[in-house]
Amino acid sequence: MIFFSPIGRRTGARLAAAAVAVLGCVLHQPAHADELVVSAATSLTDAFKNIAAAFEQQHPGTKVILNFGASDILMRQIANGAPADVFASADQTAMDKAVGAGVIDTASRVDFAANSLVMIVPADGKLALKTPHELATRSDVARVALADPASVPAGRYTQKALEADSKQLWEAIKAKAVLATNVRQCLDYVARGEVEAGFVFGTDAAIAGRRVKVAATLPTPQPIAYPIAIVKTSQHAGEAKAFVDYVRSSAGQTTLVKYGFKPAAQ
């Protein structure tokens, strides 16, 4: 049984309503000629804000509009007609869905960063949890924050990592799950102590600073890779390519490393 904490449910409802409002706004307000719309996975928020600012300095005639969210939700926005020039996903599955929907220039698709998956606990937690198995077996662990595997790459990576250990481990932890609509919401649940533990990307744990502690790093069956591509309907293909190139440049990669990302496998 998957359940939601009262606070988590209210927070989720507010975020869902906000997402609908943002989507409605995006769908009905075309980007201006000098605006480059970049839809990027939530875990890229801090790094891409920095990258966008640096890109704008090099391209003074271009304003980068950043749209962050769960990768699958961003893909659906683009497929439904929301203006976007660049799509950066936190996993291959979301990008594969974009390919299937025919919304990206497949020739432009390339991996640009890698990440890790970690189990985190509140910084002031008293349970001294160290492994996912403890989450499954200990009676004093009632709630575990998970990004929703149905729409969030971090959730998919978590499910596959736990299932690689055993199906029973995944099922036991899923029964205690408080589902999050994106990886940063999952991080917040843990940081606020609303759950005993959670699973996020290593970069998200680093952003949280002293609010959470990393209890374990989980191996994943597939590497955590971030692909980026130009949206097929982009009216700013030249600028979009320049942005992708900047993300992959030494300056862009230095910024990504600064925020805890690893270089993409070559």
Question: What's the CATH topology name of the largest domain?
Answer: D-Maltodextrin-Binding Protein, domain 2
Profile the largest sheet. Answer: 5 strands, mixed
- The low-confidence parts are 1-29
Global outline:
elongated
**Beta-strand percentage range:** 15-25%
Structural class based on helices, strands and sheet pairing: alpha/beta
**How far from one another are the termini?**
41 Å
Assembly of the depicted chains: single chain
Strands, count:
10
CATH superfamily of the largest domain: Periplasmic binding protein-like II
**Name of the top-level CATH class of the largest domain:** Alpha Beta
The residue-averaged pLDDT reads 90
Would you mind describing this structure in some detail?
The protein has 266 residues and is α/β, with parallel strands linked by helices. The protein has 2 domains: 11-114 and 224-258, Periplasmic binding protein-like II (D-Maltodextrin-Binding Protein, domain 2), CATH 3.40.190.10; 116-218, D-Maltodextrin-Binding Protein, domain 2 (3-Layer(aba) Sandwich), CATH 3.40.190.10. Helix content is 45%, strand content 21%. The chain has helices at 6-28, 45-58, 71-79, 92-100, 132-137, 153-165, 167-174, 183-191, 202-208, 237-248, 250-258, and strands at residues 35-41, 63-69, 86-88, 110-115, 117-122, 144-147, 177-180, 197-201, 212-218, 224-230. Helix 2 runs antiparallel to helix 11 and helix 6 crosses helix 7. The longest helix is centred in the first third of the chain and has 23 residues, at 6-28.
